[in-house]
Design a protein that fits this description.
The structure holds three protein chains of three kinds.
Chain A (H helix, E strand, L loop, with lengths): L5 H21 L3 H25 L6 H31 L13
Helix pairs in contact in A: 1-2, 2-3
Chain B lengths: L2 H6 L10 H24 L6 H4 L18 H16 L3 H35 L8
Chain C lengths: L1 H19 L5 H21 L17 H28 L3 H18 L5 H19 L6 H32 L8 H4 L6 H21 L8 H8 L2 H26 L15 H21 L4 H22 L2 H25 L13 H4 L1 H15 L5 H15 L4 H27 L12 H19 L1 H9 L1
The chains are: A mainly alpha, B mainly alpha, C mainly alpha.
Main location (chain B): membrane
Subunit structure (chain B): NDH-1 is composed of 14 different subunits. Subunits NuoA, H, J, K, L, M, N constitute the membrane sector of the complex.
Membrane topology (chain B): Multi-pass membrane protein
């Protein structure tokens, strides 16, 4: 049976990883930045599933790792949204450039 | 096919493998375009003030959707996401629960117990209470 | 195992004490008792008394190194809670929850000291970081605290993403998450170049990501802002115990992996780890020490000094021998204890700039004297624990031939660090001023801080007293 080669899937996941990284560095809206982080995590998920299916199909290790990543991502998102709401209430803005109390 | 050749095979002529995916993409985009164009062409255009209002599942709408919401909604939404995602751990158990036997059962019960502790905590902290 | 489960359960107990105990003052007493229990349980585990018999299927591996580090971390946390518990109460309204989060961080620390698979490393790091994001933003009304939390979160989750990418690449190379399995064992009879390339790339990504967590330059830029913005008491916790735990995770991973993926083992795809770590060390020492010299606030100076100290702890990663592992434990203990002391005094001060310390020796002689001991220990002056910690680090590098220049760089920067630590001492003793304290210092605090200073001098005179426990 002919299948999609692993390299193509790795290409997609790597592209997604860098799209996420690009978004994290260029976007100034905190929610968009949070979404970029999620993109990075999801690209890693694709990577895990692809490696598991193509290279080591006898054990489902990689797939279990994705489950852990998904739950941790949810926990991170919850904390992030709490932080963003809190900042919005004191700051009235969710633009990172407005958060200049501490200089980089 | 050995593992290594899959990894190294860059020159596989594999455009045919993407045929199904391409068809699916075309169909998905096609349906959207056809629906939008068709409803635009075929539908009658009688706009009344009721029709131009935001649709809120039949309930009378309460003005603009971008009005600030009470923080309670966010809290409940965040808690929902947390508890919802944890259910993912039941899938591997559900697939293997016969092989895992009683030990697996006790372990899942422990997991649920930890869950329940968190749930009791948020109830005790009155995070789910709507009326102050 | 005892410590992991007990710390999680302690966190849950604290959670419910926040519901059922009305009096805010009792929380820190409960936390101190629970920490004492945790310490006892971990020491029992060290001597073979297991409370839980769980088959971890090779996920966790418990050894003396891990147990010993757990004891150091828990004991430092105990000292931290005893000394600054009163200040934790002042941060906000959710006192009990802060202690809950501290217990959960400790759970992450205990996982990091005993992980054997990359999955557990990831979980440990996340269990450690997520409560810290909340603790950073604990001062809800304070804009600086909120911003620090946001920056910490963004940088933390970014480094998590990099680490996960590294883990996938290593998984692709080995097919397992076990840290002791290298590609050569799994792939036999095939040209394994692709696999060892994947492995090397993955390990470099892991190095970058843990470098973020321990704030090694050039991945340090979040540190000063976050340490400056977050409430002082939690900066203390973040800069000491958590950073030390990051180093333990770091050294465990590279102890298992570095040899097999180094240039000696694999000339074509191997990575020159020694060189990479040397670059990391020099840049960390340079940035940490030089920037610390120009700071006006003691809190920010301590943030840069923690970067500089991270540079010294990186020496252990460089040499990766037995002396390095011992030295890292000693360094973790010396650095944590001294920094906890300095921060405990700092949060009592009204003004956190150097001028705020002017004339402290007149108003509060005990605080000034103990603060001097802590600062001397951080600077690595003989007769304090910091001296032997630095000595062990440099000695471990001496064992690796051909890197004498690195030792010299280390000594030079240790000398530079003396300058900014002595600025505080100078302000306290030789400048006139009214160093004001926010509230009257209690007798218990004074006793605690004198005991802490005594411990540092004890380890400075007899470093073996701490380390020999490690051997038997």
């Amino acid at each position: 049976m002919s299948t999609v080669p692993l390299t193509h899937i790795l290409f997609v996941s790597t592209a997604l990883f860098f799209i996420g990284m690009y978004g994290l560095f260029t976007r100034r809206n905190m929610i968009t930045m949070l979404m970029s982080v999620e993109l990075i995590l999801n690209s890693v998920n694709i990577n895990f599933v692809a490696f598991n299916k193509y290279l080591y199909p006898q054990k489902a290790d990689g797939i279990f790792f994705t489950i852990f990543i998904i739950t941790i991502a949810a926990a991170e998102a919850a904390v992030a949204i709490a932080i963003i709401i809190n900042l919005y209430r004191t700051h009235k803005s969710i633009d990172v450039d407005d958060a200049t109390e501490l200089k980089w | 096919m050995s593992a290594l050749t899959i990894l190294l095979d860059a020159n596989v002529n594999s455009s045919a493998n993407y045929f199904q995916i391409g068809i699916q993409l075309l169909v998905a985009i096609g349906i959207v375009i056809v629906m939008m164009v068709a409803s635009h062409l075929l539908g009658p255009k009688r706009s009344t003030s009721e029709k131009l209002e935001n649709f809120a599942s039949g309930i009378e709408s309460h003005g603009n959707a971008r009005a600030p919401m009470a923080i309670k909604y966010f809290l409940v939404a965040i808690l929902f996401v947390l508890f919802d995602v944890e259910v993912i751990f039941f899938y591997p158990y559900a697939v293997n629960f016969k092989e895992l036997g009683w030990t697996g059962f006790w372990e899942v019960l422990l997991f649920v117990a930890f869950f329940l502790v968190g749930f009791i905590y948020i109830i005790k902290k009155k995070a789910l209470q709507w009326e102050d | 195992m005892n410590a992991i489960i007990t710390s999680a359960v302690c966190g849950v107990i604290m959670m419910f004490s926040s519901v059922f105990v009305e009096n805010k003052k009792t929380y820190r007493h409960i936390a101190a008792v629970l920490l004492l229990l945790l310490l006892a349980v971990n020491v029992a585990d060290t001597y073979g008394i297991r409370l839980f018999h769980i088959d971890t299927k090779g996920m966790l591996l418990f050894d003396r190194f891990g147990y010993f580090f757990n004891s150091i971390a828990i004991a430092s946390t105990l000292i931290y809670v005893v000394l600054t518990g009163r200040d934790i109460e002042k941060v906000g309204t959710y006192t009990a929850e802060y202690f809950v989060l501290i217990f959960f961080v400790l759970c992450g620390v205990t996982i990091l000291s005993s992980y054997n698979t990359l999955l557990m490393l990831f979980l440990g790091i996340e269990i450690l970081s997520i409560p810290l994001y909340i603790l950073t933003g604990a001062d809800k009304r304070n804009l600086k605290s909120n911003e620090a939390a946001l920056k910490y979160f963004l940088m933390g989750s970014f480094s998590t993403g990099i680490m996960l990418m590294g883990i996938t690449l290593i998984y692709g190379a080995t097919g397992t998450f076990d840290i002791y399995v290298t590609p050569k064992e799994t792939i036999t009879g095939q040209p394994a170049i692709v696999y060892s390339l994947l492995e090397s790339a993955g390990l470099i990504l892991m190095m970058i990501s843990i470098g973020f967590k321990v704030s090694a330059a050039p991945f340090h830029f979040w540190t000063p802002d976050v340490y400056d913005g977050s409430p002082g008491v939690f900066t203390s916790f973040m800069a000491t115990i958590v950073k030390a735990a990051g180093f333990i995770a770091f050294i465990k991973l590279f102890d298992a992996r570095a040899d097999a993926s180094g240039v000696e083992a694999n000339a074509f795809t191997g990575v020159d780890w020694k060189m990479l770590f040397a670059i990391l060390i020099v840049s960390t020492l340079l940035i940490g020490n030089i920037t610390a010299v120009f700071q006006q606030s003691v809190k920010r100076m301590m943030a840069y000094s923690s970067i500089a100290q991270a540079g010294f702890m990186l020496f252990a990663l460089f040499s990766l021998n037995d002396v390095a592992k011992e030295g890292l434990l000693l360094y973790a203990a010396a650095y944590s204890l001294a920094s906890i002391g300095i921060f405990a005094i700092m949060v009592k001060m009204k003004d956190h700039t150097f001028e705020g310390y002017n004339g402290l020796s007149k108003t509060q002689p005990v605080l000034a004297a103990t603060n001097t001991i802590f600062l001397l220990s951080l600077a690595g002056i003989p007769l304090t624990a910091g001296f032997f910690a630095k000595y062990y680090m440099l000695a471990s590098v001496m064992k690796t031939s051909g890197y004498l220049w690195l030792v010299i760089v280390g000594v030079v920067f240790a000398a530079v660090s003396v300058y900014y630590y002595f600025r505080v001492i100078q302000a306290m003793y030789f400048k006139d001023g009214e160093a004001t304290i926010t509230e009257e210092v209690s007798k218990g605090f004074k006793v605690g801080i004198i005991v802490l200073a005594g411990l540092i001098i004890l380890f400075g005179i007899l470093p073996q007293s701490l380390l020999q426990w490690f051997y038997f």
